[in-house]
């Protein structure tokens, strides 16, 4: 799993493939990707930054798909529960999953300079956590892996300033 978020890529292709993956998964699992859910996912895919529920709601309102907070929260809950999006706890916000359909436990790298969020492989961090858990007998109920800092572009701008 390659990190997605800080590098330049074909963003239109990224959006199209994310929507296609969601549509395929919903069809295979008998889930309904309603117009509101689909638009909420499209909104998240259009950015590589976390968006708050009210940001998503404002964009849904512009598209004529609802104006009440429960509309956005229900759509976001659906997207998160089926692996199409992730909730970034540190920001109380949401981001589209960069690898839908893959079983993974990503690490989220949050740039405080430009608000970009990259979804990076968490295999090494998960292994280290599993070892610590095994040593102590602790039984985790939830694991969050989020780091704040600067993306390569923001760090380079600061270094050149």
Layout of strands and helices, then pairs:
Layout: H1 11-29, H2 35-45, H3 53-62, H4 69-81, E1 85-88, E2 93-96, E3 107-111, E4 117-120, H5 123-136, E5 146-149, H6 152-160
Parallel strand pairs: 3-5
Antiparallel strand pairs: 1-2, 3-4
Helix pairs in contact: 1-2, 2-3, 2-4, 3-4
Keywords:
globular; 3-stranded mixed β-sheet; 6 helices; 5 strands; Arc Repressor Mutant, subunit A; 161 residues; alpha+beta; single chain; two-stranded antiparallel sheet
How would you sum up this structure in a few lines?
The protein is of the alpha+beta class and 161 residues long.
Explain what you see.
This protein is of the alpha+beta class. It has one domain: Arc Repressor Mutant, subunit A, CATH 1.10.10. 47% of the residues lie in helices and 13% in strands. The strands form two sheets. The chain has a three-stranded mixed sheet, with no helix packed on it. Strands 1-2 form a two-stranded antiparallel ribbon. A hairpin with a 4-residue loop joins strand 1 and strand 2. The chain is globular. The model has no long low-confidence stretch (mean pLDDT 88).
Q: Per CATH, what is the topology?
A: Arc Repressor Mutant, subunit A
Number of domains: 1
CATH architecture field: Orthogonal Bundle
For the record, what is the CATH homologous superfamily label?
A: Winged helix-like DNA-binding domain superfamily/Winged helix DNA-binding domain
Count of discrete alpha- or pi-helical segments spanning 4 or more residues? 6
State the name of the first-level CATH class. Answer: Mainly Alpha
Q: Span between N and C termini?
A: 33 Å
